[in-house]
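Lab meeting, item 3. Inverse folding demo.
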């Protein structure tokens, strides 16, 4: 299998190993998560926090959607909080310009890193020279 092909395949991660998750993931990485109460959702890693007295946690954001009722943008943020020797608890914060609501959406059952969709931390673009007479 070539390196290009491997970069397309989602890389499953262990949802029960919070320490490894926060070490493996970086801001702007794309992941696909599933919780006990939420179907597959693709999110972007906003922050990874090393273990504190509450344990390590991830902050993920889903792409904004437009609500049909108020025609305003709605943004969901997921806080994945660690518990000792168990899957991370996931809290969903839904933000609109007029309101923020929070609810527990269960525990993290699967998580996979999507390397093809992730934004590299450094600019890997190749400079292209264009002659002035073109």
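The presenter then showed the designed sequence:
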């Amino acid at each position: 299998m070539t390196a290009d092909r491997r970069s397309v395949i989602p890389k499953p991660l262990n949802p029960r190993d919070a320490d490894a998750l926060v070490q493996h993931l970086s801001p702007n990485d794309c992941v696909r998560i599933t919780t006990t109460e939420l179907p597959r959702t693709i999110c972007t890693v906003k922050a990874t926090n090393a273990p504190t007295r509450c344990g390590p946690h991830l902050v993920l954001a889903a792409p904004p959607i437009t609500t049909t009722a108020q025609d305003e943008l709605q943004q969901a943020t997921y806080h994945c909080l660690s518990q000792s020797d168990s899957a991370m608890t996931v809290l969903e914060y839904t933000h609109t310009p007029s309101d923020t609501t929070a609810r527990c959406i269960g525990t993290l059952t699967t998580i996979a890193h999507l390397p093809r969709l992730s934004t590299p931390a450094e600019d890997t673009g190749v400079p292209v020279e264009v002659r002035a007479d073109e």
